[in-house]
Amino acid sequence: MKAIRRFTVRPLLPEPLRPLSDLARNLRWSWHAETRELFRSVDPEHWATAGGDPVRLLGGVRAARLQELAEDHQFLTRLTAAADDLNDYMTGERWYQAQSAELPAAIAYFSPEFGVTAALPQYSGGLGILAGDHLKAASDLGVPLIGVGLLYRHGYFRQTLSREGWQQEHYPVLDPNELPVSQLKEDDGTPAQVSLALPGGKQLHARIWLAQVGRVPLLMLDSDVEDNDVGERGVTDRLYGGGSEHRLLQEMLLGIGGVRAVRTYCRLTGHAPPEVFHTNEGHAGFLGLERIAELCDGGLDFDSALEAVRAGTVFTTHTPVPAGIDRFDRELVARHFGPGAELPRIDVGRILGLGMETYPGGEANLFNMAVMGLRLAQRANGVSLLHGQVSREMFAGLWPGFDAEEVPITSVTNGVHAPTWVAPEVLRLGARQIGDQRAEDALSVGGSDRWDSVADIADQDIWDLRRDLREQLVMEVRQRLRASWRQRGAGTAELGWIDGVLDPDVLTIGFARRVPSYKRLTLMLRDRDRLMDLLLHPERPIQIVVAGKAHPADDGGKRLVQELVRFADDPRVRHRIVFLPDYGMAMAQKLYPGCDIWLNNPLRPLEACGTSGMKAALNGCLNLSVLDGWWDEWFQPDFGWAIPTADGSGMDADHRDDIEAAALYDLLEQRVTPRFYEHGRQGLPDRWIEMVRQTITLLGPKVLAGRMVREYVERLYTPAAQAHRALDPDTARDLAAWKAKVRDSWHTVTVDHVETSAATPTAELGTTLALRVRLRLGDLTPDDVEVQAVSGRVDAEDRITDGTTAPLKPAGGPDLEGRWVYEGPLSLDRTGPYGYTVRILPDHPLLASGAELGLVAGPSEELAEGAGVLMR
Hints:
Phosphorylase is an important allosteric enzyme in carbohydrate metabolism. Enzymes from different sources differ in their regulatory mechanisms and in their natural substrates. However, all known phosphorylases share catalytic and structural properties. This is glycogen phosphorylase. The chain is an alpha/beta fold. Strands 1, 2, 5, 6, 7, 8, 9, 10, 13 and 14 form a ten-stranded mixed β-sheet that branches. Strands 21-22-25-24-23-26-27 form a seven-stranded antiparallel β-sheet. Strands 17-16-15-18-19-20 form a six-stranded parallel β-sheet, sandwiched between helices. A hairpin with a 5-residue loop joins strand 23 (about 785-795) and strand 24 (about 800-810). Helix 11 (about 300-310) runs antiparallel to helix 27, helix 11 (about 300-310) crosses helix 28 (about 730-745) and helix 17 (about 425-435) packs across helix 18.
């Protein structure tokens, strides 16, 4: 019989065990081994069936066992130590508190998904895992972050396979009362709520759930409340589900509702209000509109409020392709804003203008969330050095007249939270060298360029560790594979072969990620005979573990999964290659340490960063990857291999894949497998072990989320907080008025004449020329602009490459016709074809970049040719 109502019955812990509740509700346990071990000892068998989730564990432990523990002095001593350690972690000074700079009082970090732990399944892939690692690293560093997201009642989806290998999706219902979250409540005990106005006089209400991620509160909005109609209750049903309007409502709730949730949390708890708002991808971009509305309610006009909001906003883009950005029909957006809907005090036209694609190739009828994110943020970044470059090129249309390299989008390369992803065995081996506390600090705070202590670990210890981790993975794979085949309809009698799947002494390759086409899940299948030869080689075999989910609406991705599964089902190779369904954090934590090689073969440059290889590297797994994302930035032959890229112009997709697949096979046959199986005098693969050592020594400190968050604090959060403080209401009005004046007058700013002291088209290296420019500023003054000389090598089309800029200074006042003369030196510091030009930019002390307004004036083509501005 089916129950007509569901309750969550929570255990009543004996008084001595009450600290267990606090330990379970703080997600620090997900990366703190001692706390997890304490919970495991409560009931080892139930700990396993609870999936390592303390909340589920405590909900199922027998009362007799709890009473037994309440009288166990040894357990109570451990419990007291764990509770004291958590208290010290939560209240003690950490890296952030030791900084001398005027850092932000608080930062609000918005993301549509957060991958903190498998016990809180609110993530789909890399974006969510990165957001979870950002929160955990911020907690370790003591950064006063407030996370903001949504609580999805079905999470993402659970993946199984049909008998034919077709992906099937399942959406289990998640009861918040069974998750490691608690309701945020008003002082009178009622649930705290936020509300959004919808067209037609309706309302969208949402409760606020709190997940405590170490020191960092994570606020999660849930629309499944009784005050909502059926449609509104389903707004937070699934991550990345539903149609266009459904997604728009999710993003309005995340951005607008999220700001209101932050204000509510700060009011109820006394937490410092954020000075900086960080938008992790465009999904949360509407947060800027809510903050503008707040300031308008306080008496500012829209333009002044926009300047104040921009000053304290950071926007991070994660996509390298326009197709990865959320775009909505402008009429749909217009319907949800203005009179009778949300933010009625703001003119709808101003809102639409923030997201309009007003650049060549843009679509005028679409509202672009990333474009709005960039226009609402004074500081923006990509997530690797290469991705920063790709982003500057992709969004260059928003800054017309500027070369892509000058577009004000920087980069902070992603990192991973080592305490979450490093296997306990790896951590223990490191702690033997430098001690527990130093090892913990090295992984969480970081700060060094190299981990030289790894050199002191014996080769035999490294090799024994690698084999132990590989063997653990083999056992995990067999268990998961057996469960998968049972779900596919196989009987026990059919599955005896699984006991021989994988071998703990065979070179093991991992490939696990989402399955969009650009990640090329099936590149390894381009030449199946050659792959079979590698899998079945009599002396140097390989084995491959593959996992990944295709988006439910992506039939192309599902076909790739099926193609891989059918190959892995072949009795000839099924003991050497497996596909594991339902890839998630719990699987990943076994997969990264157990593999010897981490394979990544995306289409370059479509991998914004790709952090799975970082997690593998921290465990001594070597990367074999296309030079994309972070690997393009940090690859060295000392600790991995680069798959060559076939990116010539005119290359068709099939031919490119054939070439790159052949290069992959070549690397495996000629360089990777020989090194793994080549044993030296001591019977160990000396050269392989040295690559493992170099991977941990040199890559380890780089790939840390602690390094990443420190960069955000120093390079983005702190300047944003300083800009926020500078923009008081009067200053914001002055800045908005100045920008309006500059925009209105810019058409009158011209360069009339350029001349140098060069008498010939050739010059000696080291020569300094005198540069003289005559220009008009219209209604502007020299205080409003900066005049620059731009010089550098020129290409065949006379475009300046790798240019440098130098300011020119006015030589006196304007002449009778209102023209100004600017002068300055021009140093010829490079040989070869060399050129220069001049340009005029708006200049104001509160601008973060000379390109901020997207305005630039330079000599006309006729003037440039007449002045001979290019020298050979």
